[in-house]
Amino acid sequence: MEYKILHDDFGIDFWEFEERVTFISGHREYSSQGTKSKLRDFSDMSEIVDEFKGKEIVKVYASIHGSIALSLNSFSCRWDSGLFGLLVFEKGEFGENNQGLKDFITSWAAWLNGEVYGYVITNSQGEEVSSCWGFIGYDNCEEEAKSQLKYFIQEEKERFNKALKALIRHKVPLEARRKRLARLAWI
Q1: In angstroms, what CA-CA distances link 38 with 29, 32, 85, 182?
Q2: What does the alpha-carbon distance between residue 146 and residue 134 come to, in Å, rounded to a whole number?
Q3: pTM of the predicted structure, to 2 decimals
Q4: Which of 21, 59, 103, 140 would you label with 88, given CA atoms 20 to 30 Å apart?
Q5: What burial letters (b/e) apply to 90-103, b meaning 16+ CB within 10 Å?
Q6: What's the CA gap between 138 and 116, in Å, rounded?
Q7: HSE on the CB side for 50, CA within 13 Å?
Q8: For 107-116, what is the mean pLDDT?
Q9: What SS3 state is found at 47?
Q10: How far apart are CA 51 and CA 40, in angstroms?
Q11: Which of 40, 13, 9 is nearest to 27 (CA)?
């Protein structure tokens, strides 16, 4: 058995299931699913603060030059970077001092850059045994693929051993055992 990691050309929409956060775009050339409004002028932040009273409002900066890098801090390049938008969410949603927000931003940037993957697990005959898609980040996908591969191999070993014990218990001759077990061994 083996697994292959493949690029997911039909990757999930990052915002489709994201209900914790609202993104308000401030970038003239960018709109995203999940935006509260297409484009907002951030020159008067008091209007936005009034609209989202009691919620956390965090600025997100972007550097866009071939790929997109996101940060909670501004970038030094004045040509390819600037304020990207605002994230609005309930206070405490990302833990004390918003520690989890960095992971959220990292995942979002990976999705924006097309870093969405899936895996396919095949047996020794090349037949697909399992697949799963929509992982943001190669490492996340590979970790799950390895876990699933380990599960399938263990399951097959148990099935093989159970069949072998039954053949031994029924005193099936060795040559007949080999033939029957060869049909089971698709790892």
Answers
A1: 10, 8, 11, 61
A2: 16
A3: 0.75
A4: 140
A5: eeeebeeebeebee
A6: 7
A7: 5
A8: 92
A9: helix
A10: 13
A11: 40
